[in-house]
Amino acid sequence: MLGRGLERELAAGRLQGLPPIWSPRAKLLVLGSFPSVASLQSQSYYAHPRNQFWPILASLWQQDLSRMDYAGRVAMAQAQGLAIWDVYGSCLRAGSLDSAIQEAQANDLLGLAARMPQLQAIAHNGGESARHIRLTQTLGLPVYKLPSTSPANAAWSLERKREAWREVLQRHGLLE
C-alpha cells in the first residue's frame, strides 16, 4: 500500500530535476542527489532556507550571497569555476528526503563533464549522490564525498562542513 503523498505524486507523474549550472571554464562539479521540494518549486538549486550550501560558499568566497538573487548566485558560482547539477534527472519521491527517491533516472554526468575542458574534480554533496562515485571516477579526475549541506545532515556542524568544503575548493583553485 502506498502512502497518500506518493499516491498523489504518482498521479501527477515523475518529478523532473533542474538543468545544470555550468560553463566551459568550470573546474569543480558539485553533484547533489535530486532537488528538494523547495528547489523544484522555485526552480533554483539549494533553495530550502536551512540548506547550508549557499551560506558555506558565501563564507568561503567572502561574498554576501544572501543579498543576491538566484541569478547573482549562479553568476558568482560560474565566475568562481563551480558547476552544479544532480546525479538524478528525474524520479518518483514524496517529500524531499533522499531515502524517499524511487525509480530514479540518472543524468548524463559524463556528457556534461565532456563539455567542461577545464574540469579538475567532482564533489558529491552527500551520501546519496556519492553512491555514483564509481561512475564519476571513470573520468579519471579526483572525486570527493563531501558532507551533505542538507538540513537533514545534523550530525555535522556548520563549521565542520565548511572546513571539508574549504579543503576541496581550495585544492582546485576556487578560493583566493
At a glance:
The chain has 176 residues and is α/β, with parallel strands linked by helices.
By DSSP, the count of extended strands is: 7
Assembly type of the shown chains? Answer: single chain
* Total of DSSP H or I helical runs spanning 4+ residues: 8
Average pLDDT works out at 92
Poorly predicted regions: none
Overall morphology: globular
| Strand neighbour order, sheet with most strands | 3-2-6-7
Share in β-strands: 15-25%
Order of helices and strands: HEEHHHEEEHEHHEH
The computed structural class is alpha/beta
Distance between the termini: 53 Å
Percent helix, as a range, is: 25-40%
Structure explained in plain terms:
The protein is 36% helix and 18% strand. It is of the alpha/beta class and 176 residues long. The longest helix has 14 residues, at 158-171. The model has no long low-confidence stretch (mean pLDDT 92).
SSE inventory with pairings:
Blueprint: H1 4-12, E1 15-16, E2 28-32, H2 37-42, H3 53-61, H4 70-80, E3 82-86, E4 88-92, E5 102-106, H5 109-114, E6 121-125, H6 127-130, H7 133-137, E7 143-146, H8 158-171
Parallel strand pairs: 2-3, 2-6, 6-7
Antiparallel strand pairs: 1-4, 4-5
Helix pairs in contact: 3-8
Keywords:
alpha/beta, 176 residues, three-stranded antiparallel β-sheet
